[in-house]
Design brief:
Layout (H helix, E strand, L loop, with lengths): L1 E6 L16 H17 L4 E5 L3 H8 L6 E2 L9 H8 L7 E6 L3 H11 L12 E9 L2 E10 L5
Parallel strand pairs: 1-4, 2-3, 2-4
Antiparallel strand pairs: 1-5, 5-6
Length: 150
């Protein structure tokens, strides 16, 4: 399975939090990463997004075919992402467009074996895959793409 974690692009400050929209810079970040994803996307990709406006706008730069999962919102956690995607046992690939701190905590868990407060910059994408070698399941970091490198 492939698991892609995309933090929403830059959004305006303010409240209410769920209705914050992307800035001009954020829209550019989302378009650039969406173009990179179009070129490199894994096959059989399912796309999941938080219900916030900024995540839906980020996701829409890539596709209109995505599922909104309330548990992926700003208060969601690592277990919510794992439940939504079926990592690591599901087939195909999943792209989650979500928030800190859950995305960073999941990256820490996948790479170090423990949740920690790692930071994922706005608009960045982390791509993991899992494989079996011998009888051992391994997590592999395939790519980390900052928004300004896409």
């Amino acid at each position: 399975m492939d698991l892609l974690l995309w933090r929403h692009a830059e959004a305006v400050e303010g409240s209410p939090d769920h209705t914050r929209e992307l800035t001009d810079r954020g829209r550019k970040q989302a378009r650039q990463m969406a173009a990179w994803l179009q070129e490199h996307r894994p096959r059989h990709l399912k796309v999941y997004a938080s219900p916030t406006l900024r995540t839906r706008q980020t996701t829409a730069a890539f596709t209109d075919n995505f599922q909104i999962i309330p548990a992926l919102g700003p208060t969601g956690g690592v277990s919510d992402i794992l439940a939504a995607t079926g990592w690591p046992d599901a087939r195909g690939a999943a792209l989650v467009v979500g928030h800190q701190p859950a995305l960073g905590r999941l990256c820490a868990l996948l790479l170090s074996g423990a949740e920690a407060d790692w930071t994922i910059k706005k608009g960045a994408l982390w791509w993991f895959t899992n494989r079996v070698r011998g009888h051992e399941t391994q997590t592999v970091l395939r790519a980390v793409i900052p928004a300004d490198f896409a």
